[in-house]
Design goal:
Layout (H helix, E strand, L loop, with lengths): L2 E7 L4 E13 L2 E8 L16 E6 L8 E2 L5 E2 L2 E10 L4 E7 L2 E2 L2 E2 L2 H8 L5 E5 L3 E7 L3 E7 L3 H11 L4 E7 L14 E7 L8 H8 L10 E8 L3 H11 L7 E6 L5
Parallel strand pairs: 13-14, 13-16, 14-15, 16-17
Antiparallel strand pairs: 1-12, 2-3, 2-11, 3-8, 4-7, 4-11, 5-6, 7-8, 9-10
């Protein structure tokens, strides 16, 4: 068994959508369904990779319109979110949004919009700009992520199927079952308590405790979390003999010092 990772660029696209539905998966974790503002807005939309993401631009949390600059580009707060699922023919896409702060006092416009914007509120979706597509069957899979990476982890689990073996490392306080994560029987799952002062440190330590692969070409690694995860995991890949372009290692967010 072996695998390949292929990177595909996509042409830029700006799509007008509206909030179609909202569901709570867990405290602070919402699933949003965005629907086409007009028929055909999602024509040509593709997201074949496990970590494919879009940039979402919203207006005010009370459902106000998205503003545009003189060149027709949307302006305002935006955030990158992983595509959970989509159906171009039906005209919708689903995103799981992590909301920070307390109810009715969510931090950031995106969080407040996700939690409180009226159904029908407008938004803009841009992307995906590209995709990383995994093909084949890795002999050993390592999926490591914090709350920001859980949607991508879920997609990779579904895409890889029930026959995979490896390690699933999650830095979260959420009920992973409620979030729809169902690891294959051959995946060893470890739930790691987050440390607000050292985000993703537990993930790095857990990764470094794994044994080196017998065959580096057989191990697929997805490791995404706070920006500090990138350098040590890339160094670890080097020690394991895995080329960086055969893995997915990203910082999905950056901690702001107090």
């Amino acid at each position: 068994m072996t695998y390949t990772l292929t990177r595909y660029p996509f042409p830029p696209a700006v799509r007008h959508v509206r909030l179609g539905a909202r569901a709570s998966l867990a405290p602070g974790y919402l699933r949003l369904r965005l629907i086409e503002a007009m028929p055909g807005e999602l024509a040509g939309f593709v997201a074949p990779g496990g970590g494919d993401h879009v940039r979402v631009v919203v207006g005010s949390s009370d459902g106000g319109a998205v503003e545009f600059d003189h060149d027709g580009n949307p302006v305002g707060e935006s955030r990158t979110e992983t595509v959970v699922d989509h159906d171009v023919e039906q005209g919708w896409l689903d995103l799981d949004v992590l909301v920070h702060g307390e109810p009715d006092a969510e931090r950031g416009i995106i969080g407040a919009w996700a939690a409180r914007a009226p159904i029908g509120s407008p938004a803009i979706v841009m992307g995906p700009k590209g995709s990383v597509v995994l093909a084949g069957e890795p002999g050993h899979v390592v999926l490591a992520g914090d709350d920001s990476a859980l949607p991508a982890v879920r997609r990779y689990l579904a895409m890889l199927g029930p026959g995979i073996t490896g390690d699933l490392l999650l830095e979260t306080r959420h009920d992973v079952g409620a979030l729809g994560l169902e690891p294959a029987q051959g995946m060893r799952m470890s739930i790691l308590p987050p440390d607000a002062d050292r985000p993703s440190a537990a993930l790095v330590a857990a990764l470094e405790s794994l044994p080196a692969p017998d065959d580096p070409l057989e191990r697929f690694v997805f490791a995404c979390g706070e920006q500090s995860i990138v350098a040590p995991v890339r160094a670890l890949l080097g020690r394991w003999g895995i080329e960086v372009d055969r893995a997915v290692v990203k910082g999905y967010w950056r901690r702001v010092a107090d």
